[in-house]
Amino acid sequence: MSDRKPLNILISNDDGIFALGVRTLADTLAQAGHQITVVCPDRQRSATGHGLTIHHPLRVEQVSSMFHPQVQAWSCSGTPADCVKFALSAVMEKRPDFVLSGINHGPNLGTDVLYSGTVSAAMEGTLDGIPSIAFSLANFTSDEFQVAAEFALKLVEKFRVEPFPQAPLLSVNVPAVSESEIAGVVVTRQGLRRYIENFEKRYDPHGKSYYWLVGEIIEDIPQPEDSNLPAHILTDVQAIRDRYITITPLQYNLTDAITAKYLYSQDFFQ
Asked: Where are the alpha helices (DSSP H) in 128-235?
């Protein structure tokens, strides 16, 4: 790393403290000289969204030997959002420069971000006014996280010298290919990625029935226009298919401005 002051970075995820993705991300940033704190769920917590633990206590344990020697790591019994809240309030003595989440094992594209614990962990940082980025490897079977980790390192270094006007929430998806096969880096808008869902009925060894949610992804569907963005900006779903690293700026304000304006203009409830 250069002679710049090391960044103070908090890292979480939803795949759990033992996931290869978070270890690769944390170790890569630590090896570059940054100060890294890791607080992750103690088990797999994918698709938990922004849930919080309010009816049970949180159990937290410090983790050693798994990470680079300079990484301080804890496992937490709570959700990804719990982990970030706990880290900011009870673990870190100084406010972090960034909150990073991931590297998730699998994509977070389109409507996935509504369910993603990875994105919710990053969102928790943004809610506290901290620049936050969720990183995902766009493949469920590949274990090659290093390309994504190296890009994360480049991205935080770039944002150090080119700060944002306000704390952003970014969702970054990285194709599961070698660095030479990546087509480039593009800023994208959120696309549509829906599922044909089915609850498959199964039976346990005692003959009792249970249900397992299964589904098929649908991506080739018409994309809605966004009047606030130029028409040439691709969706994350389209761009990742073409082997681009996608950077999708998100926001937690879900107000539907079009419908709000319509209701207001019509004096709908008068």
From this structure: 146-161
Q: Nearest CA to 83 among 66, 63, 67?
A: 63
> Which one is predicted more confidently, 171 or 227?
171
Integer Cα distance of 157 and 61 in angstroms: 30
Give the 3-state secondary structure of 211-244.
EEEEEEEECCCCCCCCCCCCCCCCEHHHHHHCCE
Three-state SS at 154: helix
Judge contact between 75 and 17, C-beta under 8 A: yes
Domain covering 8-188+227-258, topology:
Stationary-phase Survival Protein Sure Homolog; Chain: A, (3.40.1210)
pLDDT for 234: 87
β-strand pairing of 184-187 with 244-250: parallel
Domain ranges for the chain = 8-188+227-258
C-alpha 68/C-alpha 24 separation (Å) is 10
What is the b/e burial string over 135-148, where b = at least 16 CB atoms within 10 angstroms of the residue's CB?
Answer: bbbbbeeeeebebb
Question: pLDDT per residue over 94-123, tens digit each?
Answer: 999 999 999 999 999 998 999 999 999 999
Reported as a single tens digit per residue, the pLDDT across 26-80 is 999 999 999 999 999 999 999 899 999 999 999 999 998 899 999 999 999 999 9
Retrieve residue 124's tokens.
Answer: 């928790």
